[in-house]
């Protein structure tokens, strides 16, 4: 018996109000609504199978509900015939759905008997991936499916939720890989860093029933490629400063594990570093191409340089419109977040790019910069390019970064360079025609 539409709200409210009274249930709710069965997560479901020697398992549940579900019930679980599949799905949708052969699957039960206490029952489907794979390869134009129906001769079944339509997308080999492709950048202070451990999580994308030996290596060539493609200046860690295990066994029953990488921080100069760890092999199955590489990135901060006596100039300043103090280039060096440099806007505005040149008065090895937007809703500085010079004539580009529209301090890793002057060329603004900055901090070594 199937039920197309179920309208119980008013009757169930009455039942709740009556509590333990002796009303005849049939006078309140028709008998067909007393117990209603349906497939949980019914409808179309996509499924990818893993090509192992073991069957793939899929489990779904049949729920017993209704106004009085504390009754016995029974349903049968059937697989549609190809004729039924064509009539209900293939012809209306114009898709060549094909029913997988009976050799590709088995059901642990085809009849579910519910006791008064049972509220749901499970159905386990065993799918044979190698058989399914053979069918897919023989008829690649077909869309292979396993359509299931739940029905009953004695009890009500929700007609809108009586089917489970499993669409088998592919049969793929299990693969191992890193769960995260890159770690968050960590900042550590130069002179205060000792050996530290980075833990990289990796694992198999199916339940592990094997002892799998995994191989790892550092991809020495990747850093240069990454820098070229991203305009960054990451350094490759010297081999003497890290230890990466060459092999690790993922034992049976363990699906994920952590690879521990030791890094000797005390041996590193200030700068931005990258360690590309690659999963190079596995004793069985495959290494996921998309998840084979994990990038460990961290920054050794130089000392925050004292800016007393430093000066700044700009190609555009607002010398009157922002008051007696604000608007001038020197505001970015005064350690006061309430003051700011601003591009000219009164009596005519200057368009980007704008340039700020900071004179450190003597030479340093510059390793990082940090900047703070103006704040108070005026976080307008966008893309910046950075340069260093010893004579204010010959400039070396040391980095290019876009600031976020936030008022917090933002750190930027640059190509470590020696010089006296720093030029910040602001290429764009989030408020075109206007630009401002509160502070510029510089890190490095004397």
Describe the structure.
The chain has 446 residues and is mostly beta strands. It contains 5 helices and 32 strands. It has helices at residues 9-18, 25-28, 82-93, 129-138, 222-230; strands at 2-3, 36-39, 43-50, 56-65, 73-79, 97-99, 105-107, 111-114, 120-127, 143-151, 156-158, 163-172, 175-178, 186-189, 195-204, 212-218, 235-236, 242-243, 247-250, 256-264, 271-282, 286-287, 293-301, 303-304, 311-314, 341-342, 354-372, 383-389, 396-402, 410-426, 436-437, 439-445. The model is unreliable at 1-29 (pLDDT under 50).
**Spans where pLDDT lies below 50 across 5 or more residues:** 1-29
Oligomer status: single chain
Rg: 34 Å
Count of extended strands: 32
- What is the number of helical segments per DSSP (H or I, 4+ residues)? 5
Assign an overall shape: elongated
Mean pLDDT: 90
As a percent range, the share of strand residues is: over 45%
Give a short account of the largest sheet: 7 strands, antiparallel
Distance between the termini: 86 Å
